Amino acid sequence: MSIxxxxxxxxxxxxxxxxxxxxxxxxxxVSTPAGIVTSVITTRSVKELNLRPGSEVIAFVKxxxxxxxxx
Length: 71
Description:
The chain is built from 1 helix and 4 strands; from the N terminus they run βββαβ. With 71 residues, the protein is mostly beta strands. A 4-stranded antiparallel sheet has the order 3-2-1-4. β1 and β2 form a beta hairpin.
């Protein structure tokens, strides 16, 4: 996916803080000006994208997948 195809309103530029790798899925925590954004992606993608703590990335959210809950 190219960065140009990402909706600017739904993206967070940041730095990977931590990666918790699992056998199939991995949790990637990205430190952004808005706070920590956590994404679950395939471990294969982590390796293919050469992601590691300190990597600068863009995390993006599909607005059709955002939910709101009361506290």
